[in-house]
Amino acid sequence: MLSNHFQNGMDTARLVWSRLPHSEEGELDGVGLLSAVNNRNGVESLDYEVIENYAYREEQAQRGKLYVGYNVAVKWFFALLIGIGTGLAAVFINISVENFAGWKFALTFNIIQKSYLAGCLIYILINLALVFSSVYIITQFAPAAAGSGIPEIKGYLNGIDIPGILLFRTLIGKIFGSIGSVGGGLALGKEGPLVHTGACIASLLGQGGSTKYHLSSRWLQGFKSDRDRRDLVTCGCAAGVAAAFRAPVGGVLFALEEVTSWWRSQLMWRVFFTSAIVAVVVRAAMGWCKSGNCGHFGSGGFIIWDISDGQEDYSFKELLPMAVIGVIGGLLGALFNQLTIYVTRWRRNYLHKKGNRVKVYEACLISVITSVISFGLPLLRKCSPCPDSDPDSEIECPRVPGMYGNYVNFYCSKDKEYNDLATIFFNTQDDAIRNLFSARTIHEFSAQSLLTFLVMFYALAVVTFGTAVPAGQFVPGIMIGSTYGRLVGIFTVNHYKKLNIEEGTYALLGAASFLGGSMRMTVSLCVIMVEITNNLKLLPLIMLVLLISKAVGDAFNEGLYEEQARLRGIPLLESRPKYKMRKMTARDACGNQKVLSLPRVVKVADVVSILRSNKHNGFPVIDHTRNGETLVIGLMLRSHLLVLLQSKIDFQHSPLPCDPRGGSRAIRHNFSEFAKPVSSKGISINDIHLSSNDLEMYIDLAPFSNPSPYVVPEDMSLTKVYNLFRQLGLRHIFVIPRASHVIGVITRKDLLIEEESGDSAILELQSTSVRAQQHEKRMLVGNADVERPLLSGLLIQDHTPS
């Protein structure tokens, strides 16, 4: 049940965020993101609902068709900027990672020609330096940039205001932290952080830049409401996936399936346009880099593992081992989620409480362990002779030292030998996956080497996930899945004795199955895997393994992002309500709470006292009729009250109400003044200074309250309330007694509004309602004579249940 006091946690969030760069505990990091805030029960919701007060209506009335067209054009222009910005950020990250990795492996290969011990030390030190730079940036500059960022962005789009996740320093920390952690060879990827990067770019563009770092522009400050920022952040998420995988359609579907809680057709068009722009930017950058302008970038490059020349067809007998891959993916994916939960809890409760220095030590220790394993294990593996060269194949065996490709000659006594374990271990993850997916390389990897790599890399991925560095799980998941997929492919080739079976095909299916078993995505992941492999023939097989792996994984736990969001204290409203809600009503959810309401004309001293004594975010506004009956006339937000107190221009000496519709006093506020900054540092009651004369004055709240809040009857099923709350992105719902009478019934055709030819500004509702009088042809909206029901309870979802 909801508690009696609903706290917004504004002061708490400000306190926590102000301590971010140097805090020793309770800071916003990748493990316990909201631990400090949750201890005070203070997660705040976002105002996705349009507050249709008189200030809003006056502003809308002054806007003509020209402004509407301008607003639409600006939204498309912002979608263009988001696509360009995210694409350039992805290009910068990839060029940096590929060059750092290229220099590292080239230098190491040159040194090991003389001494393997010296090469090992240089390899460890380079990785350690890169990882140290990443963890130092995160702990000292941008703690909110740790982790993948997808659970936080999912929470934001679900309506939860998480401090610090969309700031400029978070963007900088995400970009440079990803370069250090991925370039340093840790068992993580840059794809999840790119989603967060795209969301940060979109949010910063929407608010006109960063005022703190003097990187702002007024002409970009067109979208200040949470509702508009939500659309921009959705475009940024899709752009991040499109840039990470070069999968524009997959990016759109990822935003629709995984991160958003609210969708509409107009947003679909802009998201698709943004992803298309990202694809163009990335393609142009790759074309420019092919001429050698980007150093080592190009041979590794962006993720795209073209296996269009792989297996042409498959037989019915192969469906059984493919189904087995799906089952293995579901089991290993669910196990991965559970192990990361245990490790994350241990880190949060014991390790990371000791401060930032321990986080740095931890990341550096994991870097050393990863480097020793990736360099040392191939030394224990015997080399294999190169296969007979295929004139139609461009694969060289062994490859030139320090270059990308298959068949790595590492610690081999003969020139025509290669080390299969070094081919996947002593390599960048993108190139190792490309080797595992490669066609016409049957028996390149032995089962012993694949099993060794699977066990070690799986353990490293579990331990690395949750460290204080930007970390994505897409590429490590593909690495794990492609390894056991190739193992199944080896057994399938040996069992069926067919030459047309490609082990790389099974590696692809294994990668899809592990991601499906861990992240529980289906449609978007299927399209992403098809786009990055450029092989549409495998679409039915990918669909098969995804369905099986998701079904198996769901039998054990939830998806990776849902589990991590719960660990971070992010109160997500999932797509389906809990089963026990069917037996509960809205009245049951309200409990015995006492509704704290405000009169229409309220004394300033009373407002200050109420705001200081509680943390509620919304207050019902009531008025009294001539008969002494109490009416609910609207909802007043706490943030709006603070704006009114700070400005003081609406204070009045008279305790009588004014009528803004009658023209006695015009609204002296722009609606944008009530918008909350994206940094969550809104006005606090402690920041407002009022004199004794100010406290004796009055405020008429009617012009500033929302006159049409969403209401539900007290006996409505909590399941229906849940669906209404989530699908509309609400922050408050009034619970009222059963209404005494009906003034009309709206059906489908009443909502099909047509513009009249005589006056295009008049919109008529042809209602089919039962009227008390035959001459009543139109529904009266906002009539003051209409009886309003009393308020029974108030249901507010802007806090974290204990």
From TrEMBL:
Keywords: CBS domain, Chloride, Chloride channel, Ion channel, Ion transport, Membrane, Repeat, Transmembrane, Transmembrane helix, Transport, Voltage-gated channel. Its main location: membrane. Residues 705-762 form the CBS domain. It is found in: Membrane. The chain crosses the membrane at residues 72-95, 115-138, 232-255, 267-286, 319-340, 450-468. It is a multi-pass membrane protein. SMART domains: CBS. CDD domains: CBS_pair_voltage-gated_CLC_euk_bac, ClC_6_like. The keyword Cell inner membrane does not apply. GO terms for molecular function: voltage-gated chloride channel activity. The keyword Transcription regulation does not apply. GO terms for cellular component: chloride channel complex. Belongs to the chloride channel (TC 2.A.49) family. This is Chloride channel protein. The lineage of its organism: Eukaryota, Viridiplantae, Streptophyta, Embryophyta, Tracheophyta.
